[in-house]
Design goal:
The chain is of the alpha+beta class and 359 residues long. The chain is 56% helix and 13% strand. Helix 4 packs parallel to helix 7.
């Protein structure tokens, strides 16, 4: 909101410095008067009948005191202005950096040099904030570009199928409807995943006590037909493990981990193990699967949106939308937890989620 213009901080500090200096000078002169001049007699005779008295000293002292006070005032104003400018120079740099960031340039950094003080701490904190903002904005832009691309693909396929049906009335409509349903299901799944991802990023959900062992059993029960279809053994172990958060988001988190472990468990007769346990004040969920070896450089990219590991394109009904581990990472972060992905030496992946436990 607009405000009336006022004195700058530099001018306020200058006036404060000059005021304190003038008050100190006045007190010094008062001390001289109280403890020296008042004890000089009005009329005194010294050697040869010549001696300064109070009247003469006051006449001599008063102009000198006035000159000294004027000098102290001017010296306080000039020195205070220079000193305030030097003291506020780091704040000016921070203000310029904030103004630059407000104009859209998040790559600028202050990088203040010198010893550690309050301004240096503020500048370092501001640089850290700019770095995080730049990374977050870049991630959001990349996510938006990928999301628009992924959404455009099923829409383009639907448009192509409709064009074929319009140009070729004799085409089998059952096959056409089946393909349209598959494409529409994929688009709906992608939209729901995007909405859920945005909800978890905002963190606007009600927290309640959730038993992760029950969540793991529910996720395993849901995905058991898929595991049996692929000939994969799905085991759930561990005891009661409680944490605070959204039951819906935590269920989606564990379900995505288990589904990812099942879908990417390529060899027949593979295994997927889900284990829950409490370690002190931390609730742990581990999802481990067999499968092909993963390159170590690929693992950090698995939590990025629209990354599908070693299989970039899948043609079955569980192709996914490339948001599985990205959604897991977002839910874990919204619940103040950590997600660790480690490739197993014999192949497959070990995913470990650590969340704050609740009584």
């Amino acid at each position: 909101m607009p405000r009336r213009p006022g004195l700058s901080v530099r001018l306020k500090l200058t006036l404060s410095y000059a005021g304190f200096l003038a008050v100190a000078g006045a007190l010094l002169l008062a001390v001289v008067w109280v403890f020296l001049l008042r004890y000089v007699p009005d009329n005194s005779q010294g050697l040869l009948g010549i001696s300064p008295n109070r009247y003469l000293l006051v006449r001599i002292f008063t102009p000198a005191a006035a000159v000294a006070m004027a000098f102290l005032l001017v010296f306080g104003l000039v020195g205070g202005w220079i000193l305030a400018g030097r003291m506020l120079a780091p704040l000016t740099r921070i203000t310029d950096a904030a103004r630059t960031a407000g104009n859209g340039s998040l790559s600028h950094r202050i990088r203040m040099e010198g010893r550690q003080d309050e301004f240096r701490e503020l500048a370092d904190a501001f640089d850290t904030m700019l770095q995080q903002l730049e990374s977050h904005v870049a991630e959001q832009q990349r996510f938006a570009a990928n999301a628009s691309h992924e959404l455009r693909t099923p829409l383009a396929i639907s448009q192509a199928l409709l064009d074929v049906a319009r140009k070729d009335p004799t085409r089998d409509r059952g096959e056409l409807l089946q393909r349209l349903q598959a494409v529409n299901t994929r688009a709906i799944g992608l939209t729901e995943a995007l909405l859920l991802l945005g909800r978890s990023d905002r963190g606007n959900f009600t927290r309640e006590s959730v038993d992760l062992s029950l969540v793991a059993e529910e996720a395993a029960e849901t995905l058991l037909p898929l595991a049996e279809q692929r000939g994969i053994t799905l085991d759930v172990t561990g005891g009661a493990t409680r944490t605070g958060g959204s039951a819906e988001l935590l269920l989606r988190m564990v379900t995505n981990l288990v589904q990812n472990a099942v879908v990417h468990n390529l060899p027949a007769d593979g295994t997927v193990t889900v284990h829950t346990e409490e370690q002190g004040d931390t609730s742990v969920v581990r999802v481990e699967n067999t499968g092909p070896p993963l390159p170590p450089e690929l693992v950090p990219t698995l939590t990025e949106p629209f990354q599908r590991g070693t299989q970039r394109v899948r043609t079955d009904e569980h192709a996914g939308v490339g948001l599985g581990l990205a959604l897991v990472h977002s839910v874990v972060r919204a619940h103040d937890g950590t997600l660790d992905l480690v490739p197993r030496p014999t192949g497959g992946l070990l995913a470990t989620v650590r969340l704050p436990s609740t009584p």
